[in-house]
Specification:
With 669 residues, this protein is mostly helical. The protein is built from 30 helices and no strands. Among the domains are: 1-40; 41-70 and 121-447, no CATH class. It has helices spanning 2-15, 18-35, 42-62, 73-76, 90-94, 105-118, 122-149, 156-169, 174-178, 183-204, 208-224, 235-245, 258-283, 285-288, 296-315, 339-360, 366-378, 399-414, 419-445, 450-460, 465-477, 481-497, 508-519, 544-553, 562-578, 585-598, 601-614, 618-631, 634-649, 655-668. Helix 7 packs parallel to helix 10 (183-204) and helix 16 packs across helix 17. The radius of gyration is 28 Å and the shape is globular. Keywords: Membrane, Repeat, TPR repeat, Transmembrane, Transmembrane helix.
Length: 669
């Protein structure tokens, strides 16, 4: 047997990637040692390795501490830092999130608590996220252990520990764990796992008291999960999935189990709702996809390929493509007749057919459970909504289903009568785990600094508009302004041609050029383009105005001619309005914040007034009230106060908005 495996390793080394051959070769050596040393207990060895793995897991992700706040952290995490000096705003901030219809108060609560108690910096926040990830790994191990125990599997705890470590060490988890904002995905998964585990324990408990306790834990977890992130609602269909494919069928006098029937009906209702939701999105896709380079058909048609890539990246990772930037992701759509899309679609259709067959024959199937878990986990963010095509954190919860498939594979191998094969399989799993850990460690090392993370993104995403923009600013800060301007033009071109990218507006390259000139040490801009030449609908779509505001606030470019930039922006907006073009509301808000930071209250008031004509939401009205106060327009201040008080009476202001409103009223007095 050892000779045959060695021959297979040699064959793989010729036709496959070297890692496969290395896994087979090392597992052969390890299994041979364990077979010829009777004092080594495979169970004890795997348990010790698993316990050591928990410690190493923490150290693995800890190697990525150092990059600070990045991207969305500036809007979701940094504002909570004011609790260090204003703890009285705790609950107002917790319930101020508007990123989803119900907010994400549990996630914001965790951010707020660590500020009040520890005055946490970014690296401490990442360490907390690592801790939550370790808890999730433990819950995955417990869930798989219960699933295997219900089927009477020997060495269930060994398989559960190894599988949980494979799940937790997968390089795909690095960006989720080390990106502070994505704690919402980690916490949502925590509560979903708690709900699933407690449901299985309640169903298998013989003691009524235990059943009641676990049922209460399940209900509480189901209710809490959506308040960490909205995909927490998937706990309900996932529980139904467990009931259908994991809980053993029992003989009933009337021939059916009411719990099974209810679960099947719930899953069928979920499928119907999924199709109806897709149809609703189709009818409004002209509006919702207007800011995208891809269409509804592209989004839906490329979903099978994207799902296959999530699957592949979990088991056989390509770390060069991993990170936070995926706006260069290629589209392989059914609408274009892509062979890749057709093949991936056929595979997933076959998987669905397998699940339907298991339901019809009333068969307990862990394979069907794993497939269903993966597909249900992606049903919100991967099919219909006009979101970015690809993000690794979206696979955090669905990958639990892939871990279930891995555990089932190990179970089937360990059922073999041959002890030699069982030992070889455990050794191969251990070596595979080590390979994943090394890949994750190398990937996490790129998170030690923002510069190292940018270099990693540049090496793996050379055509990404976002990477090109960041690289341009980095080159400019090193003095290469001419090279930065070439990258800016390339970023603009790629943003208009890459299907997955958000297209840049006509004014975005100018703003990028301003940032590059500032960081490059220039005191004044070259001749700015004529405002009329750039006039189009929605011409400012990037985050550059916020970057320019930060540069002004930090006095990063001393003696830079910001007044020229301010005057050009004002003339540009005037031309747009005169020609009947529309400037997006986010751009107007950013323009207001930029001029306020620059110390131009009149221009700030103009932008806030334009925004108020476009939108009467609380945040816009609050900015208009502040702008009126700064500009000394008492009449506008009175109007804003009256409108805001009406919103307070109607309960339309969140806690944090209410605090801002009270501060404005005190300032007026």
């Amino acid at each position: 047997m050892s000779f045959r495996r060695a021959m297979v390793a040699i064959a793989y080394s010729i036709v496959c990637r070297p890692m496969v051959a290395e896994l087979l070769f090392v597992s052969t050596v390890m299994s041979k040692v364990m077979r010829h040393n009777s004092s080594l207990n495979p169970t004890l060895v795997c348990m010790l390795v698993s316990m050591l793995g928990v410690v190493l897991l923490a150290l693995l992700f800890a190697s990525g501490l150092g990059s600070g706040y990045i991207l969305d952290d500036s809007t979701s995490v940094v504002p909570v830092n004011q609790l260090r000096t204003r703890p009285d705003l705790f609950w107002q901030l917790v319930f101020s999130d508007t990123s989803s219809p119900i907010g994400r108060p549990l996630t914001i609560f965790s951010f707020a608590l660590e500020q009040v108690v520890f005055s946490a910096g970014p690296e401490f926040s990442k360490a907390i996220s690592i801790g939550f990830h370790l808890i999730n790994a433990t819950l995955v191990a417990a869930l798989i252990h219960v699933l295997l125990t219900m089927r009477g599997v020997r060495y269930a705890y060994v398989i559960a520990f190894v599988t949980a470590l494979v799940w937790a060490c997968a390089p795909q988890k690095v960006s989720t764990v080390l990106y502070i904002s994505q704690r919402m995905a980690i916490l949502s998964t925590l509560f979903v796992l708690m709900a699933l585990l407690s449901y299985l324990l309640a169903r298998s408990a013989s003691n009524p008291s235990y059943r009641l306790v676990w049922s209460l834990v399940c209900v509480i977890s189901v209710l809490m999960a959506p308040f960490a992130k909205e995909n927490g609602v998937l706990a309900v269909p996932l529980i139904a999935l467990l009931e259908v494919f994991a809980v053993p069928y029992t003989r009933r006098a009337n021939g059916y189990d009411k719990m099974k029937v209810a679960a099947v009906c719930l899953m069928a209702a979920g499928v119907v709702f999924f199709l109806i939701f897709g149809l609703m999105e189709y009818f409004r896709s002209d509006i919702s996809y207007a800011r995208r380079n891809f269409t509804y058909a592209d989004r839906l048609g490329s979903s099978p390929v994207i799902l296959a890539d999530y699957f592949r990246q979990f088991f056989y990772p390509d770390t060069l493509r991993m990170g936070l930037v995926h706006d260069d992701y290629p589209i392989s759509s059914l609408a274009d007749g892509s062979a890749l899309a057709i093949g991936a679609t056929l595979i997933w259709v076959a998987c669905l057919a397998f699940m339907v067959r298991a339901v019809l024959v009333r068969q307990v199937s862990i394979v069907a459970l794993g497939i269903g878990f993966f597909l249900i986990g992606h049903c919100i963010e991967t099919f219909y909504l006009p979101l970015e095509l690809y993000f690794e954190h979206r696979n955090y919860l669905p990958s639990v289903g892939l871990a279930v498939l891995f555990a089932e594979l190990m179970r089937r191998v360990c059922l073999r009568e041959s002890g030699e094969l069982r030992i070889s399989a455990l050794c191969l799993a251990f070596v595979y785990l080590c390979s994943l850990s090394l890949s994750s460690y190398a990937l996490a090392a790129h998170w030690r600094s923002a510069e190292a993370l940018l270099l990693h993104d540049v090496s793996g995403h050379k055509n990404s508009p976002r990477v090109l923009m960041d690289q341009a600013l980095a080159d400019a800060s090193l003095g290469d302004v001419a090279g930065a301007r070439e990258l800016i033009l390339e970023a603009f071109t790629q943003s208009r041609s890459q299907p997955a990218a958000r297209p840049m507006g006509s004014a975005d390259p100018v703003l990028l050029d301003v940032g590059a000139s500032c960081l490059g040490g220039l005191l004044a801009m070259d001749e700015l383009p004529l405002a009329g030449d750039l006039a189009e609908d929605d011409p400012i779509r990037s985050y550059m105005l916020r970057t320019l505001r930060s540069l002004v606030a930090e006095n990063a470019c001393q003696n830079f001619a910001w007044h020229e930039v301010s005057d050009w922006l004002f003339s540009f907006v005037s031309v747009l309005l005169d020609r009947g073009y529309i400037l997006g509301l986010p751009a107007l808000v950013d323009l207001y914040d930029f001029e306020k930071t620059l110390g131009n209250p009149v221009k700030a008031f103009v932008y806030a007034s334009i925004a108020r004509e476009r939108d009467h939401g609380p945040l816009v009205l609050l900015r208009w009230a502040e702008a009126s106060l700064l500009a000394g327009d008492s009449e506008s201040v009175d109007v804003a106060i009256v409108e805001l008080e009406a919103m307070v009476d109607q309960g339309k202001l969140s806690g944090f908005e209410l605090v801002l409103f009270k501060q404005y009223k005190e300032a007026i007095k």
